[in-house]
Amino acid sequence: MKQPGLVVYDLDGVITRKDTFTALVMSRLIRSPMRIFRSLPAAVLLRSERKALASRRIAEIALSGMTDDSYSDLAERLGRRFAADAKWIRGDTVQRIRRQHEQGARIVIATASEHRLAHALLAAAEIPHDLLSASHLSATAYGFRVADHRVGDRKVEALRELGEPIEHAEFVTDSLTDLPTAQAAARVVLIGASERTRRRFAECGVRIHDAS
Prior knowledge:
alpha/beta; Rossmann fold; 45% helix; 17% strand
């Protein structure tokens, strides 16, 4: 098979086995019963069509009271912890990325996880990449809000804004929310995907290729 010139990787579920930003949010919530209580109304909506909005609201509650420095410290600490844990990192995917990069492919990591957290994990795990496209937070008087959530349609839109020709790329994902990016990509590889995701991709005309 010809080596692709551009390979775009999702992070959560593909490079990691778990959701990185959710883990960060949970680490904040469990330290404060009040924050857990405040997040309950939004948590009820997590299984509804308003899931993305609910997730952002829970994140904002969890990050309330944080300064930019304290958030950066937390993101760095957790990113390094995740990178060092074999239960978190998919070693086969990391080796695949390293091999493709050595062969001259441009590697882009496109993730809904937060930018500083994703950057810390990738650096600590020594995962080569040419560009990171990730969600961004914005500071407020009370903590942070999710200013740019790169999920769903926004993920592929951000890649285009960054000048990445997704129409010529191999896209590696596990997530049904990445269907818009998968439909735009030249080639799609699923790693860690559920049967539901595989079935839905196929129903939408997305041809799935083997990861080898």
